[in-house]
Amino acid sequence: MCGIAGFLSLGNNASIDVYKALLLLQHRGQDAAGIVSFDGKNFYSHKGKGYVDEVFLQKIVAELKGFVAIGQTRYPTVGGGKAEDAQPFLRENKKTGKIALCHNGNIANYHNLVQTHKTSSGCDAELILEIFSSKLSPPTEENIFKAVEETMSELNGAYSVICVLENGMLAFRDRFGIRPLVLGLKETPFGKEFAFSSETQCFDMLDFSYSRDVRPGEAIFISFNKREILSKQIVPAEPKPCMFEYTYFSRPDNYFEKKLVYSVRRNLGKFLALQWLRLKKDADIVTPVPTTSIVAAQAFAELTDMPYREVFVKNRYVGRTFIMPGQTKREDAVKLKLMPIKEEIEGKKIVLIDDSLVRGTTAKKIISMLRKQGASRVYFLLTTPPIRYPCFYGIDMQTRAELMASYKTEEEIAGEIGADEVIYMTLENLKKSIGRDEICDACLTGKYPTKISQTLFESIEKKRQEEKKKISEETISKK
Asked: Which of 155, 298, 189, 173 is nearest to 240 (CA)?
């Protein structure tokens, strides 16, 4: 679910804009960050493991010269999260010159494709770059779109891509638009500036206007000479945006497929409240698991006329536990992330609202905290339905074994995490909250937008289990 951004400016400081955008996209990936810039003659690159402000000191950003730059903050779903997997990637050949590329998503047939395409890392972005550059010769506008088409024909998965070529900036998105990519524009007295980003709030901060989404299956090329948008629908669009973008990944001030995430989360809270009221249960307070569930919990409280309380103090310097690589890291982070307020908990029947239940790590520890502080009952409500199937499109839950709902009933889950009852959002109400029927809900239903054969399904699970085991062993050995 990484965060990507690219800016084509009129000055020589595009990397500064990318750096600022990546800071606003930090919630989408905490493992690594990188920026590549181009000044018309030379490419400049810097990337490494860590948060954006850890990888980039002010001096480093200043050295990334150029009127165009792209960057990424990484959340690993392929590979073990090593330093060499950080994006963007830069490649050169005689036919095309140099090309830099970053992407958000996940290539489901990655392990098949790397058998025939040479890469030096474990990252699927390098694979996309290898395939695209091998199809391109020379980089004329016509050939660029043709190369995108041929690249898309080989890829099975979700991908939103930004590239810098020596003659222009390119962006394209898979036909289902599973992962976001938006286009921004700034009109100045000296000409136009352009931007691409995973989320729209980056444009607000940098005084760009949100022009539109890059359409599913579309490629956009902006030449450095013409400074005009050249667009082509490469493959027919079949939009199926990821439901997790609305419930968890995106910031609430982001627009995803023209839907304000904040409004969707209020809807989630309202529909969850209607489900609760039909059950005719009784509780004293409603509280969110901070921070993605706050908006939904507030809407729930309003509709149920129940007191809203925030009973946890969040340590904002601990990252998002769900997107941390490795179970051990997640468990350690939960202990540091939240501290309960006993006076608001003791003796209370509590409705605890969270965005999802995947592995149960966070839920189990949070409910245990509530019990220790004297909560008399804990009802655990989720704004998403049960997650029973792996995601192969950019979320690190690629094996059934790690998904609690794939092998336990709701009663068993409640017992496992220590809740009195677990109540899930229905799929129907999820779609109503988002305001569209066509979404990627593969992790809920097992119906994948792209063709995932049983052989590919089992192969991905096996590879990811091996990678997770290796990460876990490396983590333990360092302690």
From this structure: 173
Q: What is the distance between the alpha carbons of residues 144 and 251, in angstroms, rounded to a whole number? A: 33
What span, in angstroms and rounded, lies between the C-alpha atoms of 295 and 50?
Answer: 29
2 as an active site residue: the answer is yes
250 within domain boundaries: no
User: Which residue numbers in the chain have pLDDT < 70?
Assistant: 78-81, 317-335, 470-479
142: domain CATH number? 3.60.20.10
142 and 271 belong to one structural domain: no
pLDDT at residue number 458: 92
Q: Which domain holds residue 283?
A: 263-478
Q: Give me the catalytic one of 2, 102, 123, 443.
A: 2
Q: 3-state SS of the chain: helix, strand, coil percent to 5?
A: 35, 25, 40
How many distinct structural domains can be found in the chain? Answer: 2
Gap between the Cα atoms of 52 and 34, Å rounded: 8
- pLDDT value of position 46: 98
- Beta carbons of 67 and 31 less than 8 angstroms apart: no
User: DSSP letters of 117-142?
Assistant: S--SSS-HHHHHHHHHHHH-SS--HH
My answer on whether 180 and 294 are in the same domain is: no
Q: Is residue 112 part of a domain?
A: yes
Indicate the pairing of strand 312-314 with strand 338-340.
Answer: antiparallel
Q: What was the pLDDT predicted at 323?
A: 46
Read off the amino acid at residue 145.
Answer: F
Task: Measure the CA–CA gap between 325 and 30, rounded to whole angstroms.
Answer: 9
C-beta of residue 33 within 8 angstroms of C-beta of residue 56: yes
Query: CB–CB of 165/132 below 8 Å?
Result: no
Of 206, 239, 272, at which residue does a domain stop?
239
Number of Cβ within 10 Å of residue 176's Cβ equals 23
Return d(Cα 169, Cα 227) in angstroms, integer: 10
Check: CB of residue 204 under 8 Å from CB of residue 212. no
